[in-house]
Amino acid sequence: SSDYIVSFSSRDLRLFTSDGKVLGYLSPTETVHGIKFFTISIEQKLLFCMLDNEDLKVYCLEKCKSSSSEPNLICEIVKWFVTVSELEVSESICLTNVVPSTVIQPTSENDNLYMDFRGRPRNGNYKEILCIGTKSGNIYFLDTFHRCRIISVFQAHQDPLLNIHYRCNTSELFTVSKNPNNGLVHLKVWQLPDLTCICNINCYKDVCL
After folding, report:
1. Most buried among 13, 31, 55, 76, using CB within 10 Å?
2. What's the angle, vertex CA 165, arms to CA 6 and CA 28, rounded to 5?
3. pLDDT at residue 113 is higher than 90
4. How far is CA 191 from the centre of its chain?
């Protein structure tokens, strides 16, 4: 199956097919720092894990076929934010297939060579961007075909960005923040690639995306 179901509890993470077959797991030695969030790329067969210490780990799922299989760690980015910020605290992650129009310009002649984490050429013009919502209310856009290089930063909220979700068929990015002082929840919907705010809702109830 091309679909994955993930069971995550404390430091235990297991992968299943859509029909319930166990595909693999992450051992406690891999999750020693604790996983805060994760997301899976079906297209690239990759598992992205954000750890408590703000390290970003990328695992290959290609060889996960049984309950004894363990995803291969193929990239570890220590303190994912250090190239653009002194300190950030991640609060949520998701994947999109649209590059924001505010993308930072390529900085070297090799930037037109788009490779995945395994060193393979990108499939056609397919794009996959990892979005990280932070405590400062920023969204960081990381290009998964440039080893998760930060290509854009966008201030979406003034409060911690607790949840982020992408709707593929409409290219809409949903973000939720919460004011720690008065509990006001703020839901916004952004249209990619221009990141135009097309919906803005305030409420005092938690919002689940």
Report:
1. 13
2. 30
3. no
4. 18
